[in-house]
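pinging the channel bc i need a second pair of eyes. not urgent but kinda urgent?? the chain im working w is below, pasted from the shared doc
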Amino acid sequence: MNEESEVTVEIPPVHLRKGDVSEVSLEENIDYVVTEDPTNPSDPEAWAVHILKGEYEDWVIKYNNVELDKGGLEFGYETLFMPDLPEGYQVVDTEIANYFGTILAQIVTELHEHQGNVYLDLETGEKIEL
């Protein structure tokens, strides 16, 4: 019998500035796929990322509280699913933050280039046109 486990982990916000994101080259639909949020499939705006290859293969994560501010990227994430880890494996938060930050930076860049992002002023909540 094959059992799957579901894990939800929240961490404090991650603050990344230019140069903090590792020089990892990842490609959508090869290394990861953006998909509907399995915890909220009825919300068409909700999304998650399923990692297809690499050290975090088969992890499913959801970003929250994503903020772009003065060249920095701040975000939180939840781990919705992760496979059983090998015995003795140590998860290193900074490595995960860099990897997940790289994916998020690529998603944000892609959406920006195709005008799919909506930017809001944090203080007023008003839409910002770029």
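so Strands lie at 9-10, 14-16, 32-36, 47-51, 60-69, 72-81, 119-120, 127-128. and Residues 1-11 have pLDDT under 50 and may be disordered. — does that match what u expected or am i reading it wrong
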